[in-house]
Amino acid sequence: MTRLQRDLTQKLTLAGLLVGTLLGCPRSSCIGRGARVTTRTGDKPIEDMQVGDELIAVDASTGQQTAAVVCEVRRATRETIVLRGPSFELVCTPDHPLWDPLATTWASAGDWALGLRRSLLVAREGNLHQVQVEQRVLDAGVVEVFDLVLAHPFHAFLANGVVVHNKSFTSGCTDDEGTFIGIATGRTCACPSESGLRLGELTCPAGQGIVKAQCECTPPVCRTVDGNFVSATSEGLTCPCEGWQPSTPWYTGNATCLPLDGGLVGTCECPPRPPECRTPDGRTLTFAVDDGGFVFVTRPTGDAGAVPTEFPRCACAQPELSGRYSCGAPRPTAPTIATCACPVDCFTDAGLAVQRDRPCSCSTDGGLVSSTWACEELPDAGKLAVCRCER
Length: 391
Prior knowledge:
By secondary structure, this protein is mainly beta. The protein contains two helices and 38 strands.
């Protein structure tokens, strides 16, 4: 086979791939496994991209770059081509849209493979440059390919530095500032009215791509503090109380809707924010509530109603003493740091501090005998610690 025949065969093969794609091959046009996608934190293999990851989206016509969230990752096994330049190599399906900086338009990658287009838009050190394609492989084999759906009006990203379009269609809306907000369910917006400002609901038409959300000015309704629609009245509306654990009876408060706020929850009837106390090693101690207010105790575990009455024990500097954590007065803006309280009841004649009923031992004719400390009042020496077996 002559070189001319080989070239013609390759071109006919590529043309067949393009026509086959249009007539019923998988609709996703994709980038080959191993391509490095530019993200906010560096390059990442396209096969490792996940929903929620932030990558750099590109407006090819202006060169503007911004962060965008991946909302879907699609996979397929497709026929591919290879395009190479001085600073890049791109493996993609022949129908994948690439940006032609000379014609300022998107076109199928097959145009470059056939030599119909010459240059691509490539990122170098954060800036976009026009770079010529020097080598082409028309039949690079059938491989695993990936497509990223972006939650942003810029439907282009950087794969091995090349500006590529994701082509995958998604619906959603942007707010007035152009930020993508998805389908906008439950989001509020401002509506003018005779009584002043009231709230409406942002609506997003389905199936129209990325469009600006519209404000539908419905009659005022009662909402929770996060803006979700609840009901037409405030009767029975509750709200979460800040700082309380969901297992406590004080976690849920009664919410009241104020008409002047366009139906927003204006008040949430909750007890004061609970104080907090922590041990030096970071363990959190909390509280119970009695008629006298807050009382520090250990955090309840298991049964929400089971509240211990004492703090856990702690190690004293003198091993013979037993201590318990103690919390000072609550502070409104920062946790109180617990200290280890080690009370001393009396001293031995050698000056050793002891606590009543702590274990001790004394020597007898039969050997060491275990007992506990006691404090005795002596006329001249005050309280003296004695081991009970010495009596």
